[in-house]
Amino acid sequence: MAAIAVRSGELVVFPTETVYGLWADARNDWAVQKIFEAKNRPSQNPLIIHLADKSMISDYAMIRSPKEKKLIDLLMPWPLTIVLESRETISLTARANGSTVAVRIPSHPVAHSFLAKAWIPIAAPSANTSGRPSATNKDMVRKDLSQKLSYIIDGWSCEYGIESTVVKVSDDTVFILRPWFVTKEDIERALWNTTKVLYSQARQEQSPGTRYQHYTPSIPVFRFHDTSELQWWSDVHPQDKAALIVTEETYSRIRSTTTDMKNLTYFHRGSIQNLAACAHNLYNLYFQAEQKGYNSIRVESLPMQWLGISIMNRINKSVSPTPATDWRSDDF
Ligand code: TXA
Ligand code: MG
After folding, report:
1. pTM tops 0.90, yes or no
2. Which residues line ligand 1 (CB under 6 A)?
């Protein structure tokens, strides 16, 4: 049913293992245009194309280097998206008139079975209005986009909770255009540590999506590093009803060392030992804080290591005001 709808140009919402996606036939300019309208997405920001199987890639893109082939062979399906040279079979609207196309093979069973039935390339951005946090459950999609959609398919939850790692191979370097669960170390290992792998957040020309404000709820988000910042803020702004997103460990520390900050409500993101859970919960906690009528969100910074890098990438883009860059290009 959903496969028929998409083949006839309708928009459908599905979960993937990362976040919910808003799906349309990637060969059809007119269907893809509806995605840009529903999301109010800038037309210069290209979409990721989702496929059921690796064997389909060559119909829609060109694998030009052995490094691209190796990453596809070893790391897909996984939450990894690879930017390749596009074939003409992909809508120019989906590619934002560019010559490349970002390709992903989701592993989520609902998404995969849908793609296998449709057996066409499906363009899908995250199912949220542009600029807002990505939806990780159907309530978030309903609240944000329901008036603009024909179908919302509920399904298993989004295991990873933030968007896929996006990479591009150029000459002898792999650039990570958007970090996440497939890490720099995973990519280095897959290429037998023979290739330079760099974060390229500042190279905006490579990843158009990094130009735009992202992941921002309707209430302001502020980061904090140290609980003393919270005590200061609570003393100075006793009227501000804030949602405090903290790890279990920080929560215990605050309870044992500081005086009660009555205007704060604690939202538990999980243990510092489980960064995957911290990521999984992030957008949903933002959503809960908005829905429950808090004035602001105070979110604790995490160490810039391993998955913490990706979680901080999303948090840094959601804070008010948005910092110019999260980190300098090519530093780590
Ligand atoms: O996990 C995900 O990747 C989710 C699920 C639904 O698959 N999709 C997703 O799509 O996050 P979206 O549109 O929200 O983000 C796509 C990112 C944007 O930053 C975009 O600029 C970048 O991928 N991108 C898409 N095509 C590209 C291309 N040809 N070259 C460089 N970057 C590209
Ligand atoms: Mg998005």
Report:
1. yes
2. 16, 18-19, 21, 45-48, 81, 83, 98, 100-102, 104, 124-126, 163-164, 166, 177-178, 206-209
